[in-house]
Amino acid sequence: MESKINLNYTELVSQGLDYTSFLNQYATPEQRQRWVRFYELVTLSETQQELLRSFVREMKVLVLAGAWCGDCVNQCPIFAKFAELNPNIKLLFFDRDDHPDFAGEMSVCGGERVPAVLFLNEDDQPCGRYGDRTISKYRQMISDMTGAACPTGLVAPEENLIRDVIADWFVEFERNQYIMRTSPRLRKKHGD
Question: Which residues have CB under 8 Å from 61's CB, separation 6+?
């Protein structure tokens, strides 16, 4: 059995880059343009915006990514849109190749895939992980690989894929906020 590296999450948090700094440091002009184009496609409903604004617990969102990665281009700007709505969402990026210990810790199916997200509470304790693609993206990929014999309703039509991926990630952000919000320890700490 492969042993995991025990990361010091507080130290790791101190090494993270905000969205713009990550792109400035790691993206070529062409890569940056792709990230900007996708960012402009990300729209959130009023309900999603209102819920994101309601988050009361500090939530550190550590994103293992690669500026070169198409899956990162099509997902990481979503996180940036979420974080813009609430200062309690602390979004930090880490280049996969420059953070091999974190990449090893976040491996998916035995590979160092990106994006991979680690949700930490205000005390740098892990609450959840998610990545490298959402269920909506995997459904689309399976459909493309195998071809659906008849419509099942499980696979989103291509024009809806962005909306569905946003919704998938939204659920993960909401879920982790609620884990933190209902934590007996954090409720006692904050008196709520």
Answer: 79, 83, 89, 90, 91, 92, 117, 118, 119, 120, 173
Question: What does the pLDDT look like over 129-171, one tens digit per residue?
Answer: 999 999 999 988 888 888 654 444 444 346 589 999 999 999 9
Contact (CB, 8 A) for 120 and 127? yes
* CATH superfamily of this structure's domain 9-190: Glutaredoxin (3.40.30.10)
Q: How far, in Å, CA of 141 to CA of 31, rounded?
A: 23
Contact 113, 74 (CB under 8 A): no
Query: Cα torsion for 67, 70, 120, 15, to the nearest 10°?
Result: -10
| Domain range summary for the chain, segments of one domain joined by + | 9-190
